[in-house]
Amino acid sequence: MVFLAAALASASLAVPEGWGEEGVQYGQVGTDVTLSCTGAHAGSPVQWRRAGAVALPEGSAIQQGALVLPRASLATAGTYSCHDEDSGLLHAVSLRLGYLPGVPFVSCRASDYENFSCSWTSSVETFLPTRYITTYRKKSLTGEEKRRNKNGHVGPCLQDLSRPGTCTVHGSEFWSSYRLNITEVNPLGSSFRLLDVTMQAIIKPDPPEGLVVEPIPLAPRRLHVSWKYPSSWPKEPHFQLRFRLQYRPIIHRSWSVVETVNLSEVITDAFAGLEHVVQVSAKDFLDAGNWSEWSAEARATPVRDRSDPLEKVAILVSLGIFAFFILAAVLVITILIWLRVRKHSKDETKPHNFLVAATHLKALPTEAQIL
Q: Is residue 279 a contact partner of residue 243, using CB atoms and an 8 Å limit?
């Protein structure tokens, strides 16, 4: 809930009518309370009694047939009766004591841009029956509205009997300001609070709905999360929301949080085989107002990483064998290339050796020369 500036508060001592049943009198704690003996003749002596008590409260006095109870306390409350000299009942009254209303605490919230609600609690325990008068006035007026009503549009903030302590203003406008008057009334008087609100300040969407979390096949660390706009939020495209996603393994306490403008998200750092809890909240796209409450939880478990140690060893062995054959093939190819190069080198040196030998033979002396 968003609390806004409270403007004015006052109390009235006028006693409203129509409170309680007949024969009930209300009084304020700490004041002198006088009970009249209706039905007694003027000047006739009367007797006062208190139901369930042997004596009247301390300090009580009978003045001209009326019972005066000085500085009444809550303990002074009860049923009193006056009697004539023959103990005949003349009048009975039930005395209820309490306090004046205090200035109520009021807060307002809008779950969309078309309506807003206000709630309140009493600041004083009065011990008396209480009613509330709830009205509003539109502060920012158009020229036509000012011509029609210089005080602005005044209407009731409608109370719902099924939701005590709340009222709703329907058909509110995005750019308008409103002044709420929440008046608390009891048999002793009234007190009120004025509250100025703007829609942008009090907007707080309801939580997103339809949250679904699903594991992704063959992806041990991933979860697919999807949700829907709250049904209370207007569907117009210019009233968009952004979202905040929080998630954690069920065995952990700390949350991971991501933000998005989409209606789905893929969690990429989940823990394989561990159940996760996920929640989502929403806020006005332009960052007005407040985040919604978190949605109801949804849970899911990412698929398990099914590879076991034996499988891993088999994979490593396979990779090793493959690597061995690759290296062997490279070695064989290298040897073959080397042998071919060597053979080629030998073939190139043969003519050279022949010429050398021929030259050597030519240089030897002939038989004729020797002779």
A: no
The per-residue DSSP string of 41-94 comes to PTT---EEEETT-SSPPTT-EEETTEEEETT--GGG-EEEEEE-TT--EEEEEE
Q: Which residues pair with 290 in a beta bridge?
A: none
| Residues of the chain above pLDDT 70, percent | 81
Non-local (6+) Cβ contacts of 223 within 8 A are: 213, 214, 215, 216, 247, 266, 267, 270, 276, 278, 300, 302
DSSP 321: H
Q: What is the pLDDT of residues 161-206, one digit of tens each?
A: 899 999 999 988 878 899 999 999 999 999 999 999 998 899 999 9
Q: What is the pTM of this model?
A: 0.68
CB 112 within 8 Å of CB 234:
yes
- DSSP type of residue 233: S
Contact 34, 68 (CB under 8 A): yes
**Residue written as token pair 């007026």:** 141
Kindly state the tokens that stand for 244: 């905040």
Indicate the helix (H) or strand (E) that contains 5.
none
354 secondary structure, DSSP code: H
Q: Could you give phi then psi for residue 197, rounded to 5 degrees?
A: -135, 150
Per-residue CA distances from 78 to 75, 81, 97, 324 (Å): 8, 10, 9, 103
In this structure, the chain runs to a length of 371
Number of Cβ within a 10 Å radius of residue 208: 25
Q: What is the dihedral of CA 232, 233, 234, 236, to 10 degrees?
A: -150
